[in-house]
Amino acid sequence: MDALTLETLLALERRGWDALCTSTGGTFYGELMTEEAVMILVNGMVLDRDTVARTLNDSPPWASYAITDARLLPIGPDTAALLYTATAEREGQVEPFGALMASHYCIARGETKLALYQQTTITH
Questions:
Q1: pTM strictly above 0.85
Q2: Which uninterrupted H or E stretch holds 74?
């Protein structure tokens, strides 16, 4: 489980957020996600990898983001979840976006892959 450390997974999450800030999130997550992976967003949408890869580059970019309270939850020999709080802002957005994040990673064919990503709103 050497690749599934807090530092490694946090670096992957930051690379993902950086991609979302430069409108390259679809490309990044299309490569990072397993074939069966899904993203569950705060608005109730469930996106499979192909949908993420096809549409996320067209989403408005984030202008800034912050990751706080990150912690690793080991699940099994080749799986772990990264849990954290994220806040992000877009140009012209009145209120910042804030959510609890759970990114579930696994080792697949020797590579670290994202198997499940879920957002839970902190505004309710």
A1: yes
A2: strand 64-76
